[in-house]
Amino acid sequence: MRTSFHSTLVAALVLLAGCGRAPSARPLNPGERAFETRGVVRQISPDRHLAVIRHEEIPDYMPAMTMELTVRDPKELEGIAPGDSITFRLVATPDTHWIDGIKKITPATPAPEAAGLAPPTPTGSELKPGDLLPDAELLDEDGNIVRFSDFRGRALAFTFFFTRCPLPDFCPRMNQNFSEARQLSPTISGPSCSTRRGASSGSPTVTSGGRSN
Q: What does R_g of the chain's alpha carbons equal in angstroms?
């Protein structure tokens, strides 16, 4: 009887010790890179497969920014709500990414660079399908002025991306898609707008043909 009680007590203590730990992250496969980081949850999708997180800088990989990240196991978001500070592992492959090992941390240790995010203030009115795109001047990678009006009469695709965003299924994929579109149809003009490291704020650079700065 004493042995049975002792075994039950040990099992209970082990179970309690495991409570609150982050789920164990699986070993990495060849070609996968992992980064331990933390941030503040801003939004969670209804199916819990996506989470918008304002994360801290990941040294030698990406600066602090707010990203919509893929959650590998939605169960890891149980008990987590917008506004919570979390630690997690970001895994990147050559083609995609996900986060796992998610754990809520105490409010006493907020994530650096992640507090005090104010919602963006809308400026101007939103364009509707069929509206004429207002003309604007942008600076291309060779230092020349480019205007939207320069492309009138031609098919035009335009997007914004960050050259310092390394996640393969975000800006790098958009960059690749633009390059492929230009190869399939040379009549399509596809400037993409980015900001170079060290460039002053409000000075976007047009990268034509899908090349990255």
A: 23
CA 199 to chain centre: 21
**Of how many residues is the chain composed?**
213
Q: Which domains does the chain have, with CATH numbers?
A: 28-114 (2.40.50.320), 137-210 (no CATH)
Give the bridge partners for 87, in sequence order.
38, 103
Residue closest to 98 by CA, chosen among 44, 171, 168:
168
Helix (H, G, I), strand (E, B) or coil at 146: strand
Q: pTM (2 decimals)?
A: 0.61
d(CA 164, CA 168): 11
* Helices assigned H by DSSP within the chain: 2-18, 171-184
Nearest Cα neighbor of 112 from 167, 43, 54 is 54
pLDDT in tens, 63-108: 998 989 999 999 999 999 999 999 999 999 998 999 999 999 965 3
> Tokens 């650096």 belong to which residue?
112
